Automatic annotation (TrEMBL):
Residues 41-343 form the Amidohydrolase-related domain. This is Imidazolonepropionase. It comes from Amycolatopsis saalfeldensis. One of its GO terms (molecular function) is hydrolase activity, acting on carbon-nitrogen (but not peptide) bonds. Pfam families: Amidohydro_1 (PF01979). It comes from the Bacteria. PANTHER family: ALPHA-D-RIBOSE 1-METHYLPHOSPHONATE 5-TRIPHOSPHATE DIPHOSPHATASE, AMIDOHYDROLASE-RELATED DOMAIN-CONTAINING PROTEIN.
Amino acid sequence: MVLRIRGYALPHGEFVDLYADGDRWTTDPVPNAELAAEGWLLPGLVDAHTHPGATSPGDPLDDGVLREDLLRHVDAGVTLIRSPGLAGDPPPWFGEDPDLPRAVHAGPWLAQHGQFFDGWGNRVDHAELPSVAAAQAARSGWAKIIADWGPEDAAVPVDVLKAAADAVHATGGRLAVHTQHSAGSTAAVAAGVDSVEHGMWLDSGLLPDMARQGIALTPTLSGFQGMLPGLRDRPDGPAKDWLLGGTEALGPLVAAAVEAGVRVLAGTDSHPHGLIADEIRALAGTGIRTHDALAAASWSAREFLGLGGLEPGAPADAVVYAEDPRTDLGQLAAPLAVILRGRRVRPHA
């Protein structure tokens, strides 16, 4: 059965009438196509920073947990995820199962010795980091480096990050970098990586350089904001100052990044999964346009990850809402239909 959707398609709000020709949209009418839904159409939501498959830091990848996490993403309208770090090599169905989101991943995290969660990722010497990152990117398209970790930890030197970025790019791959320190974010931007994850303590003066180089920012804002009450109750000290100050600065950083022309991506980071609407609301809460907050979790993120939107020839993903979500983010909780690979996956046909 060929599915059909029609309505006002974002980002432009133009009326479209689309048919799913397998896994591609077409405007060529198909007789007897089933009208799945009509209303306001988004090109499928994206969670660009999520780590499904392990319940707690250090746990091994569990296929059952992975499937449950991905189903929660689909329930929220997410049709594409990026996992910049996984607890293990994913099973062959990851990103391919017709009922679960499309997926790209960076394999295991790559960290310096003595940093990151025990049991997760690979600790790599600086001399080996470029070749290890390049080998991972050659396998999966992305690599992920933990540029810094705790408040007293040293960041990966800029020359090492630059060598890693160059090596990854030479394979045709891309490099994501976790950073929560000023030195780490400065090194990441100077190295020309592809995305800065979190970006806590990133100097706003670097934003024009990020925009010029096409470096995306994934602030995982809602996750940090959820920690604020507990952070404020902690005993005073350097660790509290670092984490609380950096978290409170993230919202203004997001607003400045959008104004500077940096591509901002929506990512939820950790358990529970399926909370992309929370991240969209958090981004909108920084004062940026709701249009731009939705872009970070839909058409802009899809473009960054190599997928089209609601046009002929693009992958047949969409989320349909009764009203314009730009004027009512409450619509995100009640999609009329989620279309993935040309099939209605939510609600079930």
